[in-house]
């Protein structure tokens, strides 16, 4: 099973110690039963110090091992889940952008939240199950000592039940997987409702269709879950009934088959089986949890395999950005989306482009002309399928791509604002205050200890804040993708007439995607303008 494989692979503690303590716990539990049976058979006609002493010793062993298995092992299993979760997120941050764009948000969110929670819930089942298996094995040996025929009959009944029980495992696993798939689809629909709320409110037909689809997907998830749970409950009922059949066989059949099985032996066998009935029920009920955990582990392993296919070898954790460059050259660069069915045939390039230190470059063009894709190629987020990117005459290879990226600070059209200034440790408070004033954000937001007090701003103000963060990074190249699209006309004019010239004088190299053609002539002849159409500069 994937779940056990993952636990064994990730366990840093001693597996042998875990097995030993589980075995001692099960043996201690069985020894408690044996001493009770022995004391009952001895009667009360004379003082009996041996059985009480053995009982206390067995109880102490049971308590010590139980504490270890349930506390120490549970901590170890939680640490395993922590390591898997952190490793998965670390792999997410190190994959290429084009790979991550082909992994749905639902897959990632479900793996990190729901699947991890399932593994955590199964951890307790594993701890109890290990002791339960040893206990059942120990009591079985005790029954074999009391009555070989009773043991043989018990083994036959239990073996038959086990075969029938596991014959439906694949059906149950498929049912749980179908349930998980439908629940993931339901999560997608919930995202549609929340992220597309404005569009839903504007169109009642869309709202009704979406709600109908949510209802259908939710109903399908319910149906699959009911079937899976019903299948599991049928197995549990069958197993419980089988245990009662086993008890009946010990009480009624064994005395007939064995003349040596007297009343005392039958009573001891019955007591032994009753002693483990609760454990057996617990083990049977745990199978559904382990099935879910196995499915969760399989999904996590598949996701990790996809991410590792393009994971980049980690660079130094304290990457020192380059503060200067002379020239970046794109020579015959081509990029396309190999895995996007919706964009088959679209590519940008071949492109020849040169960016020199201090340049101010405007890229214009219609929607879908490839401007944003070009910006991601230029920044190193997309790897060209052919052609070369040279930095000061040296070709950018896989092992130098991150160093190249460190030249860039960017505000893309689909930018994200972080609450904290991650990666900006040595910020200048005076500079930050000056930028807040220039971007007309003073009084609307406050920068505390590396954290903004709020992000509850208008779309234009949020973009200004994103620009502030980019400037605080102090990178030599600034990339802006449709940055002015959400700015009011007054601030848009201020940006082109006042802010851009100041940023240029500070030594920044700026590449800006824009539709604001009317401002370009005001900036003078030093501005380069490139028109893009169908993925190429025309």
Describe, in short, the structure shown.
With 538 residues, the protein is α/β, with parallel strands linked by helices. The chain has helices at 2-10, 15-42, 50-94, 97-100, 105-146, 148-166, 169-195, 197-202, 204-257, 263-308, 371-378, 401-405, 429-438, 459-472, 489-505; strands at residues 327-336, 347-356, 360-365, 386-391, 394-395, 408-411, 477-481, 509-513, 528-533, 536-537. Helix 15 (489-505) links the parallel strand 7 (477-481) and strand 8 (509-513).
What is this structure's SSE topology?
Elements (H helix, E strand, L loop, with lengths): L1 H9 L4 H28 L7 H45 L2 H4 L4 H42 L1 H19 L2 H27 L1 H6 L1 H54 L5 H46 L18 E10 L10 E10 L3 E6 L5 H8 L7 E6 L2 E2 L5 H5 L2 E4 L17 H10 L20 H14 L4 E5 L7 H17 L3 E5 L14 E6 L2 E2 L1
Parallel strand pairs: 3-8, 3-9, 6-7, 7-8
Antiparallel strand pairs: 1-2, 1-4, 4-5, 9-10
Helix pairs in contact: 1-10, 2-3, 2-5, 2-10, 3-5, 5-6, 5-10, 6-9, 7-9, 7-10, 9-10
Describe this entry's structure for a reader.
The chain has 538 residues and is of the alpha/beta class. It has two domains: 2-308, Up-down Bundle (ABC transporter transmembrane region fold), CATH 1.20.1560; 327-537, Rossmann fold, CATH 3.40.50. The chain contains 15 helices and ten strands. The chain has helices at residues 2-10, 15-42, 50-94, 97-100, 105-146, 148-166, 169-195, 197-202, 204-257, 263-308, 371-378, 401-405, 429-438, 459-472, 489-505; strands spanning 327-336, 347-356, 360-365, 386-391, 394-395, 408-411, 477-481, 509-513, 528-533, 536-537. It has a six-stranded mixed beta sheet with strand order 6-7-8-3-9-10, with helices on both faces. Strand 7 (477-481), helix 15 (489-505) and strand 8 (509-513) form a beta-alpha-beta unit. Helix 2 runs parallel beside helix 5 and helix 5 (105-146) runs antiparallel to helix 6 (148-166). The longest helix has 54 residues, at 204-257. The protein is elongated and about 110 Å long.
């Amino acid at each position: 099973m994937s779940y056990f494989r993952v636990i064994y692979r990730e366990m840093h503690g001693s597996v042998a110690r875990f097995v030993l303590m589980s075995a001692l716990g099960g043996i201690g539990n069985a020894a408690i039963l044996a001493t009770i049976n022995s004391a009952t058979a001895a009667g009360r006609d004379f003082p009996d110090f041996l059985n009480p002493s053995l009982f206390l010793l067995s109880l102490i062993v049971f308590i010590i091992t139980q504490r270890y298995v349930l506390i120490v092992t549970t901590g170890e299993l939680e640490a395993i889940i922590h390591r898997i979760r952190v490793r998965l997120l670390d792999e997410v941050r190190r994959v290429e952008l084009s790979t991550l764009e082909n992994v749905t948000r639902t897959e990632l969110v479900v793996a990190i939240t729901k699947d991890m929670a399932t593994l955590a819930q199964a951890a307790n089942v594993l701890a109890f199950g290990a002791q339960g298996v040893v206990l059942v094995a120990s009591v079985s040996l005790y029954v074999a000592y009391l009555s070989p025929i009773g043991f043989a009959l018990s083994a036959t009944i239990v073996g038959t039940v086990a075969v029938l029980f596991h014959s439906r495992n694949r059906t149950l696993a498929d049912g749980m997987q179908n349930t998980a798939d439908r629940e993931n689809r339901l999560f997608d629909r919930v995202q549609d409702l929340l992220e597309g709320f404005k569009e839903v409110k504007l169109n009642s037909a869309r709202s009704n269709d979406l709600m109908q689809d949510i209802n259908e997907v939710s109903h399908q998830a319910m149906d699959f879950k009911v079937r899976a749970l019903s299948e599991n409950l049928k197995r549990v009922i069958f197993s419980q009934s089988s245990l009662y059949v086993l008890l009946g066989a010990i009480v009624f059949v064994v005395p007939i088959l064995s003349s040596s099985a007297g009343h005392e032996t039958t009573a001891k066998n019955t007591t032994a089986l009753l002693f483990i009935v609760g454990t057996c029920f617990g083990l049977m009920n745990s199978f559904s949890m382990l099935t879910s955990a196995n499915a969760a582990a399989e999904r996590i392993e598949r996701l990790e395999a996809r991410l590792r296919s393009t994971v980049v070898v980690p660079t130094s954790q304290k990457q020192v950005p380059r503060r200067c460059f002379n020239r970046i050259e794109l020579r015959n660069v081509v990029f396309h989306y190999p895995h996007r069915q919706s964009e088959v045939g679209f590519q940008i390039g071949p492109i020849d482009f040169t960016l020199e230190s201090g340049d101010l470059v405007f890229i214009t063009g219609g929607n879908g002309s490839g401007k944003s894709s070009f910006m991601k190629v230029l920044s190193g987020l997309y790897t060209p399928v052919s052609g070369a990117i040279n930095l000061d005459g040296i070709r950018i290879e896989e092992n130098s791509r991150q160093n190249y990226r460190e030249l860039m600070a960017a505000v893309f059209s689909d930018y994200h604002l972080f609450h904290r200034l991650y990666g900006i440790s040595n910020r200048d408070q005076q500079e930050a205050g000056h930028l807040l004033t220039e971007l007309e954000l003073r009084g609307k937001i406050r920068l505390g200890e590396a954290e903004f007090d709020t992000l509850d701003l208008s779309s234009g103000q949020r973009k200004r804040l994103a620009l502030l963060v980019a400037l605080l990074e102090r990178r030599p190249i600034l990339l802006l993708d449709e940055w002015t699209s959400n700015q009011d006309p007054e601030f848009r004019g201020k940006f082109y007439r006042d802010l851009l010239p100041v940023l240029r004088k500070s030594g920044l190299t700026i590449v800006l995607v824009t539709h604001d053609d009317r401002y370009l002539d005001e900036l003078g002849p030093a501005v380069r303008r490139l028109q893009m159409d169908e993925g190429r500069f025309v």
